[in-house]
Amino acid sequence: MISETRDVSNFVAGFETTFMFIFWVTVFFIVGISLTMIWFIYRYNRKRNPVATQIKGSTTLEIIWTIIPVALVLVMFHYGWTGWKPMQEPPEDAMVVKSYARMWSWMFEYENGRLTDTLFVPQNRPVRVNLIAQDVLHSLYIPAFRIKQDMVPGREGFLWFEAGQPGVYDLFCAEYCGLQHAYMTTAVVVMPEYDFEEWLADTTEVLVADVERPGAAGMQLLRLNGCNACHSSDGTRLVGPTFKGLYGSTVTVITNGTEREIIAEGDYIRRSIYEPDADIVKGYSPGLMLSYRNLIDEQGIQDIIEYLKTIQ
After folding, report:
1. Which of 39, 155, 164, 234 lies at 20 to 30 Å from 12 by C-alpha?
2. In this structure, which CATH number among 3.40.980.10, 3.40.50.300, 1.20.1250.20, 1.10.760.10 belongs to the domain 216-310?
3. How far from 186 is each of 100, 129, 139, CA to CA, in Å?
4. What is the pLDDT of residues 86-98, one digit of tens each?
């Protein structure tokens, strides 16, 4: 573990070196080219140089401004390669977490089946995050750890890291993925390993504040699956219909191109979750919601129904 930690420190330091090298090269050329342009404007304006002068090329100058950029690019490539290659070789004993990305939320699944909308990891232990995009292109980005990896639907991917300091760090989607892309944020919580093991073993913990509230399990399930990114609970119109006042109401839907009215009760809720394009609420677009048949079981459906009954 000590040698692996040192290796991690080395390539994280390499990211910093690469970034600073490219940054200062960029600053040098921006300042240098800008000052040269200003000098040319002053030196060769019409008053100082009324007659244009033909200047012959310089082989020496051509060689210089070819060799220097090539050398700089090769140095950047070297730093980039030495930082990228270790990220493709996660340690065999790394803890594995599955990351699910969808419009517009995150869900993380641990090896014991626990699900969260925040990534909890132990300190000084390698963590491999398997990347699963459920709808469109996403990109998991943790700025503090200098890691970012695209998530492509239908393609397996991963990234890994080892967090050295306890704390809470931002996690973003860095690939524009639709209307509420900017709100697709969560956090990485780094905990001492003993505290993490206790947290992981406590599968009774829920994410809602009031666990005694009726429908709390359904509210948690909706939150974990990112449903509140598209459906509000206060009547606000988002990408999908609001949950407020939904249960028991009459809903106008489009079914196979035909408009009809149905009562929003158990069968409708279940079908909307398992076959979201079967009955499209009038005024909303089809194709934006995926089926949750493999993610929410029948007990989950009943929990969601109980929650919907509470927000009339």
Report:
1. 155
2. 1.10.760.10
3. 13, 15, 13
4. 888 888 889 999 9
